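User: Could you go from structure to sequence for me? I need the amino acid at each position, not a summary. Structure tokens:
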């Protein structure tokens, strides 16, 4: 009996990218198969082969009778085999489809008939980025900025993430973007805002907000009720839902789409949580127990060097560490805090665009979750809530 040799497995597209080859024939001169343009090569597009693709008419990956983004991804090997360097996608944004998809209603998402926003993990996998890059650059960057574990970082919507990184000058592996800090910290601008308010009630937790035709009734922890013309709910969205008595269906749908990552944190002076060499210490310091998270050992730790972040005077180092329990010297601990940071997903990003429709003449919502989860996002949303209630900022 003659044995027919079993054909070897064809390398995947990411594998071919790493090997610098594709299964197709010759390419145009100047474009190495499977390679990105060289840095500074502004004329790469003159030598590249572009191909215009209509998402709806190319390939149907889910058998619903219409092409989709997943169908294009499924055929990337074939397109590369044909010698194509770059795809030009026809409109795939959300649209009422009165003008063939060109009447775009949202430039930050994908029409649900065509797919959804890819998360960071899918982007890294499809792009052929190596394991070392993912573990030592991509995940630490996202996890440190948003104070989240590696698994959560991989689920971050890629396009939403890259918009933030581009806006903050963080898509470069060299140099440091300039950061501005408020002298004296947030306490200073809180005190300035407080001077403009004639009635401030501290240590008065709110337990419920009930709306009625003439305004809103607020019940505090002492079971006392207070009447107001309008209320700004500036809390996490899950806390807002618990306060509203009752929430509307739209509020349940939108506010309920946001999840949070719990982060116990330690403020301390234990410099062993920073790199040994002062010259390589950064504002955000990410410590791995091994080359790949999840393969045994403790979870990654993030230590924020507050002297650099807040321009503190030289002298003793102040550090905030996430995941430092049992590692930080107990004698060096100043305080322990429990934080919760928003975990962004395609569902929460879609809900975020609906937040303005929740504001009424009686209630308005504010918080950092209206943006990328930072102080300036909370400030901007507060100004928008004031405007929604007729205020002038």
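Assistant: Here is the amino acid at each position, in order:
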């Amino acid at each position: 009996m003659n044995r027919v040799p079993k054909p070897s497995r064809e390398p995947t597209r990411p594998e071919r990218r790493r090997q610098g080859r594709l299964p197709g024939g010759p390419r145009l001169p100047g474009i190495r198969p499977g390679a990105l343009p060289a840095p500074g090569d502004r004329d790469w597009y003159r030598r590249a082969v572009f191909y215009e693709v209509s998402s709806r008419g190319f390939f149907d990956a889910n058998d619903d009778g219409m092409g989709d983004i997943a169908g294009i991804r499924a055929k990337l090997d074939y397109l590369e085999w044909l010698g194509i360097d770059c795809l030009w996608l026809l409109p795939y944004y959300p649209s009422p489809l009165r003008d063939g998809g060109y009447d775009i209603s949202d430039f930050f998402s994908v029409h649900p008939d065509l797919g959804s926003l890819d998360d960071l993990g899918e982007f890294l996998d499809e792009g052929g980025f190596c394991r070392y890059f993912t573990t030592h650059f991509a995940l630490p960057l996202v996890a440190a900025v948003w104070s989240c574990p590696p698994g959560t970082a991989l689920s971050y919507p890629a396009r939403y993430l890259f918009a933030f990184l581009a806006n903050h000058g963080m898509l470069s592996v060299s140099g440091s973007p300039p950061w501005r800090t408020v002298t004296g910290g947030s306490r200073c601008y809180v005190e300035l805002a407080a001077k403009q308010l004639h009635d401030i009630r501290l240590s008065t937790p709110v337990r419920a907000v009930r709306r009625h035709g003439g305004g809103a009734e607020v019940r505090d922890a002492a079971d006392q009720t207070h009447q107001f013309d309008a209320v700004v709910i500036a809390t996490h969205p899950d806390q807002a839902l618990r306060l509203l008595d009752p929430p509307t269906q739209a509020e349940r749908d939108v506010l309920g789409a946001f999840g949070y990552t719990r982060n116990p944190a330690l403020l301390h002076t234990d410099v062993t949580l920073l790199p040994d060499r002062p010259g390589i210490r950064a504002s955000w310091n990410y410590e791995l127990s091994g080359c790949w998270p999840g393969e045994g050992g403790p979870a990654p730790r993030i230590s924020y060097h507050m002297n650099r972040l807040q321009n503190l005077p030289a002298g003793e180092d102040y550090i905030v560490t996430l995941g430092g329990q049992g590692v930080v010297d107990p004698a060096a601990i100043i305080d322990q805090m429990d934080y919760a940071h928003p975990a962004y997903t395609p569902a929460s990003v879609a809900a975020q665009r609906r937040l303005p429709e929740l504001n009424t003449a009686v209630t308005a919502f504010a918080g950092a979750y209206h943006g990328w989860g930072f102080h300036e996002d909370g400030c901007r949303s507060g100004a928008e809530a004031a405007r929604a209630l007729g205020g002038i900022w």
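One structural detail worth keeping in mind: Residues 131-146 form the longest helix (16 residues).
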